[in-house]
Records
---
Amino acid sequence: MLSFLKSLLSSSTNNTRIQAQQLLRDNSEDDAYTVPTRVLYPFQWNWDSCFTSLGWVTFDEDRAWAEIASLLKGQCRSGKIPHIIFHKDSESYFPGPDIWQYDNPEMKTSGISQPPVLATTVRMAYERCKNKEQALSFINSIMPKILAYHRWWHERRDPHSTGLVATYHPWETGRDNSVEWDEPLKAVPLDDLQPYVRKDLATINPAYRPTNEDYDYYVALLQLFKTHKYDQIKLYEISPFKVADIGINSILARANSDLLYMMTLCDSSEEDRQTVLNWLDMQAKAFERFWNSDRGVYQSINLITGEKLDFVTSGSFLSLWSGLIPFENASIMASTLENMRHATKVLVPSLSADDAKYDRYRYWRGPVWAIINFMIYDGLKIYDQKLLADQIFNATRTAIKTYGFKEYYDPVSGEGLGGDNFSWTAAMWLYWLDKK
Ligand code: DGY
């Protein structure tokens, strides 16, 4: 009887694996890059692709490296890797390349970036892959590009070497409508806003998406950047929205450590290694500025007012993934996270349910995201919080197994929400959750 149950369990796990692999194939374009989901997001997105490559590496290593090579085709001369690469035309997304009008001779792209997970996911793919020789030869060839990307963040987004990199747009944080951005966005003038039409609401329930008011700010910022020809240093001085996102800063710190590690495997120069060490050192010294001891979490900072954005979001817990925080603070944060379980069955909600703005259905104001849970899980393990890490693993696994590969999940019922057939959710199944 026991062996019958075991084989039933393992055949259902195999089925989920086969479905996840098929989903990636279905969302693959030209055997080169993966769209996050058809219709809603019909192009290549920066951090989506990095996480999706981790799914590919579990069953098709060539395809995993092709994903990264396609992403790097959109890299700008400045080193920036844009948040969207428009390899082909599509009418189903706003704002497309005609709206961005970003002058990138390499490829049609957007004019902002996204959380720099690239170095970390390349390291993870390398560690998981079987053909190390092929992987190392590819990684050697892209090391200068990854280094240039990190240089772009440190030099263009932290021109005064404070150790905190700035972001100028909520889309750049990847956590678009997080409550952290509500107050800073109020400084964005809407007087010159040009008319526009959203396309996301044609396929997704508006209650699950950012509001029209949010979109007005997103588009007004885009239009402002365009007026200033996306001049990064100028925007550091004049962008009305300028925050140090705890998510981006944590992800960049972790990526610097992973870049350093890969440099030991590649033909990198001592000078380049020293540069990355200096960035990391600067970040380590500045990181304490994100800590709010009253709340027991790390928080983003509004760089225009200097104030902390006083919310407990899933972004706060990405600080664990940075590896830069003291063990003592990690254990305070683990208790903060543990306390959030009273209201939400599925950790980690993108906003604490104790917050008045919590909304269990609306995108980054409550719902749970698999990639965020993966980073928090991994961060908790760095700090020996194994029990809590395993609870997050199990909750994410159950939600995906029950409701399929959705964009995000309701933290109360676990039900799937947002876009269907979502690539990075399937990738997280393959790379992280396909165990037991
Ligand atoms: C969107 O359009 O919703 C994206 O999150 C922007 O990258």
---
Amino acid sequence: MKNNTLRHKATAISPANIAFIKYWGKKDPKLNIPFNDSISMNLSGCSTKTVVEYDPTFRNDLVIVNGTEVKDDKRKRVVDFLDIIRKMAGKKWFAKVVSDNNFPSDAGIASSASAFSALALAGSRAIGLELPPRKLSILARLGSGSACRSVFDGFSIWKKGSGNNSSYAVAFAKPNFWNLVDIVAVVDAGTKKASSTEGHEAATTSPYFKTRLNELKKRIPALKKAFLARDFGKFGELVEEEAISLHVAAMTSRPPIFYWNKGTLEVMETVFGLRERGIPAYFTMDAGPNVHIICLDEDSKRVNLALKKLQFVKFTIINRPGKGTMLLK
Ligand code: DP6
């Protein structure tokens, strides 16, 4: 039997991540260059495993996600990304891509970060490229902006940069730096109304967008300081403020985008209630209705119990700071 090297095959696993400071709006939509730096934590409980196999005899790319062949726009996004890798390697081979999420595929959790970082590593290694972490982060960013932050273990900062070679993530802190827990309260497992890519496009039409960028000049250093001092109260306040800021920008863009639903508000109110009872917990959301509740390990059981009781919460996923993108043997 031919071995993996001769078969040009590689398998990678990569986590999703939750941004404490968010990427919202693209300065360069083709290269996914953001307007601002962002900061995130990898999620130990939400990852994508991807196998890429190139074969000079294949006549087309085949993309299978969670057991189903992917077509149209979704396929095109993967094929365009494989084209970037093929160009880097100077090869024209077609590929078979098989990708699976370990979290429920219908959970409505953004999987583009885990998907494109896993694809960047498996796709580049299988074709014979050995990219150092920074180059891997740049490549992942070209597939999906937030994917560049999944490459490193624990917590990352994506430096916005000004062009393709200067926009990448770097490690900010190791997973064991802080025992934060992110509990995802899934309130809507369906597909979201507007994709994050559509949200990015609309972002700059919000009259609040410029104000948001100005606020970030203070919020980013303040959040870094609170994080490094492990000041959870201050950190949580800033995380929440940032999430609300993104959603205000989305709601005031033209056309307006409302990602929140009844369940989102139910969870937000519960988080306020937990704090009134002396349990420090803070919320954040991405481009969708599901809520990420950030708390400390010692409070995570109580927080999870409170969330699971809610009318609109279908299930929860518990995450700790996770490892970055890795090859599997
Ligand atoms: C709200 O990385 O999904 O989750 O580059 O178009 O793939 P594309 O966008 P994507 O945007 C993520 C937006 C966000 C905030 C964040 O993760 O920083």
